[in-house]
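Supplementary Methods, section 5.1.

A reviewer requested that the exact input to the structure prediction be made available. We therefore reproduce it here, unchanged from the version used in the analyses.
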Amino acid sequence: MAKLNQVIAVEKGIKARVYAGMTDMNKIVQKGELFNGFNKSYRKLDESGEDLPSESKRVQFSANTVLQAIERGLSELMTVTARKDWTNCVATGTVKVDGKEIVKDAPVSYLLFIEKQLNDVRTLLTNLPVLDIAEDWEKDTNSGLYKTAVTSTHRTKKVQKSLVLLAPTVEHPGQAQLITEDMLVGYWDTVKHSGAMPKPAKEALLQRVEKLAIAVKEAREAANMQDEIEVPKVGTAIFAYLYGDQA
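The structure derived from this sequence is encoded token-by-token as follows.
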């Protein structure tokens, strides 16, 4: 008696081979000339006439040949898939993390579904932004966000003033030049806010996701060790009805 994981492994090879055969059959049935043939012989009018060689073309495929090939391939595939699916109905696994049961007696199909969801969660968490480590953050209990302490920066304004180059005298007028300089006019007080996550918290989440994903895979592998169960001859029954007396 094979194990479920062995049946699954066998099914992959059979499916590839049968599908390839079905593709070939589909190409063949679209070429009507492969199903036609003839024998042609020449009869001269009298003895003085010319002898010509006979001509013939063999029929390469018949409808029955195609029907038998379809039945042979699909019956094999239907049987091995039935072995897998019937056994999947009784094969279950329990997801355990650190001895705690997270999901009990889950079917293989559901465990595969959970694996896919955890993989999506891992991708999202990996892309989640983290707080800038160059800043000191604290949790704001009112908003639920993180914030920094107040930082102040200068605000300046460009102003023009007269620079005396030469003081005026009784004999000569003075000389002056307009210059521009920055004058302090105030301060910007800034508090930064962020909805990002602290890096250690993100890393802890990713570790838990990975741990759970491993547990789900282990549960699936355990379920796949289920002995296969006896299945009906589904391929024979399906084609017996489908073909009737045709094949």
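The radius of gyration is 42 Å. These observations are discussed further in the main text.
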